Amino acid sequence: MNIEQLLQKSVAKLSAVDFLAETAQLDSQILLTHTLKVNTSYLYTWPEKELSIETLNQFDERLQQRLLGKPIAYILGFQAFWSFELDVAESTLIPRADTEVLVEIGLELIEKVSAPNILDLGTGTGAVALALASERKDAFVEAVDLIDDAVELAKRNNAKLGLQVQVKQSCWFENIQTTNFDLIVANPPYIDPDDQHLEQGDLRFEPKSALVAEQNGYADIETIADKARQHLKAGAWLAFEHGFQQGDTARNILTNYGYNAIETRQDYGGNDRVTLGQYQQ
Q1: What is the full DSSP assignment across 174-192?
Q2: Cys-Cys with 14: which of 24, 50, 201, 234 at CB 3.0–4.6 Å?
Q3: Is the pTM of the predicted complex or chain greater than 0.85?
């Protein structure tokens, strides 16, 4: 079987699954380029190249995982984010493009701060902390996660990128001593435990501990907004990601805890995604 035939066959199989149909062509190309260790242009340049049995078997193993709904990032073991690739594992969420909005906002908030202190809560792969550290080499960046496997993964990504982020285990602020952060960012769990989307698509494979929060999805946001006040210097900022329908409540939570200059920003699709506030003490 050659490249063109294999791609046609793969696309047909993926297209037959409702929730995979939209990305069938792209998924097939990604899986094959990774299997062959080539770029996408190779597939178009050599469509008639015959593939070995070993290659076909490797590709089929990955295709079967995708047909079951397993996310591409978990199959390949990495995900692009910001300006780099991160190792991923099923102990953490897959970094998403819309979370780059949180990075952009964070950089904006500390633009005029010299040598800023930054804390990333629930760091997972380390995506947000590492992106901030890569852009602000003068910053002290600390990142924490509750899950030990996530901490080890973030440390691995930190070493891989040659950055200086301090990564450790902590349940939110439990193991945080610093009280003068210029910026605290977080991508906490914010999905209601009863949300039907948890049983659909990629979410079925991602850790529920990183997705679900009590109080209709607001429990961790409330905790962060409350406790962050003890760790922010006067005039510093808290910014966190949330669901597209949670902007109003997120702003109310910050208002109730005494934050100022509160606003909600949109993601690349125009949906409410990040709420931020300044704490004056």
Answers
A1: TT-----EEEEEE----B-
A2: 24
A3: yes
